[in-house]
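Standup notes
- DV: blocked on the single-chain target, sequence here:
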Amino acid sequence: MEAVFTAALNNMLMILALMIIGYILNRTHLIPASLETVVSKLIVYIFLPALLINTFMTQCTPENLRANMMLILYGTGFFFLSILAATFVTELIAHHDENLRGIYRYSLTFPNTGGVGTPLMLAMYGTAGYFQLSLFILPFSIGTYVWGIEQLRPLTKEHPKHRLSLRGLFNAAMVAELIGFLLGITGVAQYLPAMIPDTLSKLGGCYPLLSLILLGYVIADYDPKEIIDIKADVVISLFRLILFPAAFLGLLTLLGAPQIVRVVTAIAFACPCGMNTVVYGTAFGQDSRIGAGLLLVTNLLAVLTMPLMQLLI
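- DV (later): unblocked, structure below
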């Protein structure tokens, strides 16, 4: 157990170091603000798709898929359970403001498995572990675009309620997973020239590093004194980083779930809040300071809480 905690802590400190680099680059103006958009697009359209295609085409064999299909089933169950739990909590702490509930509901339902969970999983369990994590969070990836993003849209007379949407499903990450799946399941991947998987591997390797640097860069856009709401941020952090993952791991213990399910659950649900509350909140005209505050506080606390959650596996 001590070895698992130490390994997780070392990797979280590395993740924190990369975010600090991004923070410093922003604050010192060593990189122009316009480059933030360029890096974001490189991550979304090049590096993440390359990582997903390479992972799925090498790991998604019929045998491997059959052995890990249960992860999708567990992920689906936890997705709906997360929505119920997040809705219950947000009704208690923000019953007076539906727009605020939407931000909190999204933050509690969707952990930042892409920005923080992926680097940690790759570092501790390699590509095979990342494939298993990807299967587990697949329902969350779909749910983000069908239900989640809509929670960040302010309610108005023209938009009186949140709606389900299928438009966002056709995105670079989902297409990359589909391509990788088809290449792997059909066996075509093994006949590709060596330069293709090598190129994909190198491009995909850029994703964890740049996504964390970008995360720190985005946080630096805000003055901590203006974005941190001590009471609200601590309450959301408590549920996001400790209570939810601990409760879900306890449930898995009662169910007698396999070890790999506990591993991906511990990493996925212990992740901090991500950037979507800031990015989409700004796009929809929300007060992005709320999401930025959660982004800053949960990512700092996760350096310690994520290793602690690994002790419960």
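- Follow-up: The mean pLDDT is 93.
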